[in-house]
Amino acid sequence: MTNAPSSSDNMIDLAARVRRGERRALAKAITRVESDRPDHQDEAVALLELLRGATAHDGTGSAVRVGISGTPGVGKSTFIEAIGARYLDADASAKLAVLAVDPSSPTTGGSILGDKTRMERLATSDRAYVRPSPSGGALGGVAAKTREAMLICEAAGYGAVLIETVGVGQSEHAVSAITDTFVLLVAPGGGDDLQGQKRGVLELADIVVVHKADGPRAEEARATAQHYRMAGHLLHHDKAWQPPVLLASSQTSDGLADVWRTILEHRAHLEKASPGLAARRAAQAEAWLWSSVEHELMRRVRHDPRLKTTRDTILADVRAGRVSAARAARALVDVLVDDQAR
């Protein structure tokens, strides 16, 4: 009787298939890291360790990482479809991954928007990989495992990874924290209230694109772009890079080449700057550590069977108002830490 392959052997095989660029393996790997099952989480850690060498600085980790955000209705998915198609058309060997973070259904926990239906050309290309992922209620509309999914795509040989967020709340900060270049899409007419926008959001932008700059809104788009250019002092924390304000239309393709060229120019700026790309990646890795610690603590507190009795008792006390949520949280973490220390 032949022994079944171990979990470790399965992950070694999966990692090898991911590196070969097998799409089914890529989908399986991302599904594994997104799963909250304890056994899947253990396998995901092993898988990421196996792929870590391929995602550091030996080639696949050099992928262009771009975050794209903006308020709902600005046309993020249409823009990504258009600029992604242009990227693929310009290089017959190029591969593009799109991680589109959908808001989660409060009922099922699944994705609501279904970006594969909104990016038909990319979804049917054998050189593009579109992955809609439910945000799972994650702060900022960025799925908890988006960074891991990005690294897996890089290991599979995707030279550019675009991350779209839902564009609400803290999404801009979240996407900026895991990418190299942050593109902020704004709609025509948005320049009039620019002074009232949150300064922190504007400071994150590496590139501002006034989208839908065509047809009857073309003149309005030019006026909006001028508003943003005149308020350039609000736009960034990097004194060596003044974020350009560009016009683009996904319908006519006007301006898309300029946007992609500017993304590459920003990447080149980071590689030459001091501190530059390496420093940004290092800071992101540190932030990823603390985010992972929070996620792991939450997972264990919620699901560790050894805490069930304590968890149920404390939860009942909180619901009945016998103890504050803050004190209850400390008690749960203390029990978890004490258990691990033994």
Concise synopsis of the structure shown:
The chain is an alpha/beta fold and 342 residues long.
Which key phrases capture this entry?
alpha/beta; 49% helix; 13 helices; Rossmann fold; 2 domains
Can you walk me through this structure?
This protein is α/β, with parallel strands linked by helices and 342 residues long. It has 2 domains: 212 residues, 3-Layer(aba) Sandwich (Rossmann fold), CATH 3.40.50; 59 residues, Orthogonal Bundle (Helix Hairpins), CATH 1.10.287. Helix content is 49%, strand content 11%. It contains 13 helices and 7 strands. Strands 3-2-4-1-5-6-7 form a 7-stranded parallel beta sheet, sandwiched between helices. Strand 6, helix 9 and strand 7 form a beta-alpha-beta unit. It is globular and about 65 Å long.
Low-confidence stretches: 55-60, 104-114
Sheet having the most strands: 7 strands, parallel
Please provide the count of β strands.
7
- Helical residues, percent: 40-55%
Enter the CATH topology name of the largest domain: Rossmann fold
How many discrete domains? 2
CATH architecture of the largest domain: 3-Layer(aba) Sandwich
Q: Which strand-content bin applies to the residues?
A: 5-15%
CATH superfamily of the largest domain: P-loop containing nucleotide triphosphate hydrolases
Distance between the termini: 40 Å
Q: Briefly, what CATH class of the largest domain?
A: Alpha Beta
Widest sheet: strand ordering: 3-2-4-1-5-6-7
